[in-house]
Amino acid sequence: MQIRAYLYLMAAAILVPVMLFAGFALHLLAQAEGDLERAKVARAAERVALLVDAQHTRAQAALRVLGASPALARADFGAYEVQARAAADGHDAWSVLMDERGRMLFTTLGPVGALQPDDPAPSYFPAMYAQHRAIVSDVMPGRASGRLITVVAMPQTSGGRRYVLALGFGTDHFRRLLADSGLPRDWQVDIVDRKGKLVASSQGPAELVGQDASPALVAAGARGRAGMLDTALRNGGAGALAFTRSTQAGWLIAVGAPARAVAAPVGGAGRAAALALAAALAAAAAVAGWFGRGHARSIRRVLDAAGALGRGETVPPRHSRIAEIDRLLVALRQAGSELKRTQATRESAGYERQSQLERAQQAREMAEEENRAKDQFLAMLGHELRNPLAPIGTAAQLLKMPDLDAHRARYAGDVIGRQVEHMNRLLSDMLDVSRVTRGLVSLSLDDVDLRNIVERAVEQTRPLMEERQHRLELRLPAAAVTVRGDQTRLTQVVANLLTNSAKYTPAHGAIQLSLASAGDEATLSVADDGEGITAELLPRVFDLFSQGERKADRAQGGLGLGLALVRSLVQLHGGSVEASSPGRGAGSIFTVRLPLKAELAALAVPPAARFGAARAREAGREGAAGAPAALRVMLVDDNIDAAVSLSLLLEAAGDHLVSTYYDAASALEWAAFERPDVFILDIGLPDMNGYELARRLRAMPQFANTLLIALTGYGQLADKARAREAGFDLHIAKPAEPEEILGALSLANTGAETERTE
User: Fold this and answer.
1) Over the stretch 714-735, which tens digit does the pLDDT of each residue have?
2) Of the candidates 533, 514, 521, which has an alpha carbon nearest to the alpha carbon of residue 475?
3) Comparing C-alpha atoms, which of 541, 445, 435, 446 is closest to residue 496?
4) Do the Cβ atoms of 188 and 255 come closer than 8 Å?
């Protein structure tokens, strides 16, 4: 056989396997492109499902807002209708209010007060009451409109009555939603309810709504949450149908793309590879008669490269003496690289999609948890602030009664005092937590004995312990346990722990406080035999607004701030706090660890600049030995009740001569004439603020060293600094204890006596 014929036969023998390998490679490439197109269809279904869920989420949010309406609580349906119509207009829907049996009280489709038919309760009522939450109905005929609708309904108790609030959507609402989804017009998008009925479709007539969806789609949806079907579309053509299930309603969302949209066309790189392969093989056959057996090795190289490509291996760079074969080798190598890049891209897209879904789920769970915490805190805040108002109002009415005897007057005053103290404690906790979380709390550090801290905290909580008849056991060491800390804040830590144990320990229960030191660490623990802490609550017990279950015998309320404040204050002292509990009904233990002699940086509030520490100690000794000398006091406050009551208190408690003014101008006019020993100034005055009034008084020579006290509701560190800059000697936050104000007046006693003797 001649060499030419032999080479021709060799070329023919090479051509067939090379073409097979190349075809297989092109097939893989086409398959990868087709998978990407089908993945696009699946992502489109998920995107439409998110749009549907968003509609239902916004509807549920609107129902929650309507459920909190004061008009609904007082059964003022006229005022409620205005709110309901506004909510419905904003959601392209109509609002319905029903009683607990399903009878419509009114709907925004008709006028208020119109009689509604007493039909049986809607079919979704049993599921709604069983789940006790908002529910999305399947497609059904509307009782008021008669057309096919879907409903988002939520049970609500308001004003002691049970209602069902609902927003109704016509099926054309979802058809418009599908039209605005941004998908191609020839794609089929279906929304199918839980019973397999069409809610809306982007293809076909409107009469399809309410009819049975594709049995194949319904069956596939019953087997899994998401998937893909190769089926005939409604327009008669073949296509790929991707489906997923919405989270809120449980509906099936199906997106179908025509077959041509998901076909796997061979791309430009594949066509180029095929052409290059054909050219190279033709060239090899043409020169076979001219070249000898040496060129057969080049052909074998092609075979080797094609085999590597078929196995998914990287085609190595090789060269021959035939340019066409070299080009073929390059093309095969490029095809292999392109195939690997396509596969890597597909895997990367899958990983990224999964990561995005996980992040979205985490963000949704965090947002839901934050919303629940906020709602719980607002409910607790309203409850805790309203509770004291009732006895205060009753006591105020009692004080207004004619011929009121002294016993009842004292009782009314005690009631008001206790309830005001309770409200002040709540506000102080909120302010403390806010300041601590924002890093605005500064510690006044000193060497303190934790045994003294325990005694102060026990004294503060003793009334609550005695009221609940708790047995308090103290285990304190004989030797001092000294730490570097803020005495007031550490007392607050221990008092909050004792109060927390008292709240969650039933009457006649036992509470044990232990203090010990070991090495360079002091340990303080509070144990009780109360309700205990569940395993679910234990990791969150120190979080803001975190509380255990409320019971009828709870000693007192609260906002869930005490333990959060404990953790923050302990951390400021360089310590740690932990909680442990065997479980519900088994009690709990809170343990605080503080470094002995801890060195912490502190921002201390300086004492009164013009009187000094020595004078303050002198005034304190004078007050302890006997009553301070009477002073001339000028009180300036635009709150008439506050000013008059404080002036009466100062006159009764210290025989002080008090002049009261309600604006800064009058105070400036009479100050030089009265020459008071002490000025007590409010900050929020009508004509000028207290800071400016203090500056003008300091500018008068006779008042350069007079005691100036700021009595104000502004109590932040920045407010205290501004008061010092304006010339105030002391800053007292409202509401202030009478003892605190009387003690501040003692700073002026020495100066006042000297002035009177001159």
Assistant:
1) 777 888 899 999 999 999 988 7
2) 514
3) 541
4) yes
Instruction: Give burial (CB, 10 Å; 0-12/13-18/19+) of 651.
Output: middle
> With 90 as the cut, is the pLDDT of residue 310 above it?
no
DSSP secondary structure code for residue 69 in this structure: -
**How far is it, in rounded angstroms, from Cα 551 to Cα 128?**
27
Coil, helix or strand at residue 359:
helix
**Higher pLDDT among residues 134 and 313, named by residue:** 134
Q: Residue 486, exposed/middle/buried by CB under 10 A (0-12, 13-18, 19+)?
A: buried
Is residue 121 pLDDT above 50, yes or no? yes
Residue position matching structure tokens 């982007």: 202
Read off the amino acid at residue 451: R
**448: closest CA among 477, 497, 494, 486?**
486
Q: Is residue 534 within 8 Å of 584, Cβ to Cβ?
A: yes
* pLDDT range class, residue 754, cuts 50, 70, 90: very low
pLDDT at 117 > cutoff 70? no
CA distances from residue 570 to 242, 448, 491, 565, 604 in whole angstroms, order as listed: 56, 15, 11, 8, 18
Residue that is written with structure tokens 């239902």 in the block: 56
Residues 275, 381: Cα–Cα separation, whole Å:
77
Q: What is the dihedral of CA 445, 448, 453, 454, to 10 degrees?
A: 140
Contact 201, 208 (CB under 8 A): yes
Angle at alpha carbon of residue 93, lines to 87 and 95, rounded to 5°: 60
- What amino acid is encoded at 314 in this protein? T
Q: At residue 435, does pLDDT exceed 70? A: no
Per the model's pLDDT, the better-predicted residue between 624 and 191 turns out to be 191
The torsion angles phi and psi of 464, rounded to 5 degrees, stand at: -65, -40
Quick: pLDDT tens for 293-309. 556 666 677 777 677 76
pLDDT value at position 615? 35
* Residue 187 zone, left/alpha/beta (φ > 0; ψ -120 to 50; rest): beta
Bridge-based pairing of strands 198-201 and 188-192 is antiparallel
Whether the CB-CB separation of 653 and 742 falls below 8 Å is answered with yes
Alpha helices in 119-195 (DSSP H): 125-131, 171-179
pLDDT, position 386: 60
Q: Is the peptide bond before 686 cis (omega within 30 degrees of 0)?
A: no
Contact (Cβ atoms closer than 8 angstroms) between residue 632 and residue 703:
no
Q: Are 197 and 212 in contact (CB under 8 A)?
A: yes
Structure tokens given for 176: 């418009």
Three-state DSSP class for residue 402: coil
Q: Which two tokens stand for residue 396?
A: 């105020």
Of the pLDDT bands very low, low, confident and very high (cuts 50, 70, 90), residue 116 is low
The helix or strand, by DSSP H or E, that contains position 412, with its residue range, turns out to be helix 406-437
- Residue 508 predicted with pLDDT over 80: yes
Structural tokens at position 156? 């609500």
Q: What domains does the chain contain, in order, with CATH numbers?
A: 1-266 (3.30.450.20), 441-595 (3.30.565.10), 612-757 (3.40.50.2300)
Three-state SS for 486-511 is CHHHHHHHHHHHHHHHHHCCCCCCEE
Question: Which regions of 533-575 does DSSP assign to beta strands (E)?
Answer: none
Task: Give which of 10, 641, 679, 719 is closest to 302, Cα–Cα.
Answer: 10
The amino acid occupying position 678 is V
- Residues 668-692 have pLDDT tens digits of 999 988 899 999 999 988 889 999 9
Closest CA to 169 of 62, 11, 55, 72: 55
Is 178 in contact with 200 (CB distance < 8 Å)? yes
Looking at residue 550, what is its pLDDT? 47
Which ranges of 626-663 does DSSP label H, i.e. alpha helix? 640-654
> Nearest-5° angle of CA 251, CA 255, CA 259?
155
pLDDT at 381 over 70: no
Ordered alpha helix ranges (H), 521-593: 562-572
Cβ contacts of 411 within 8 Å, gap of 6 or more = 395, 398
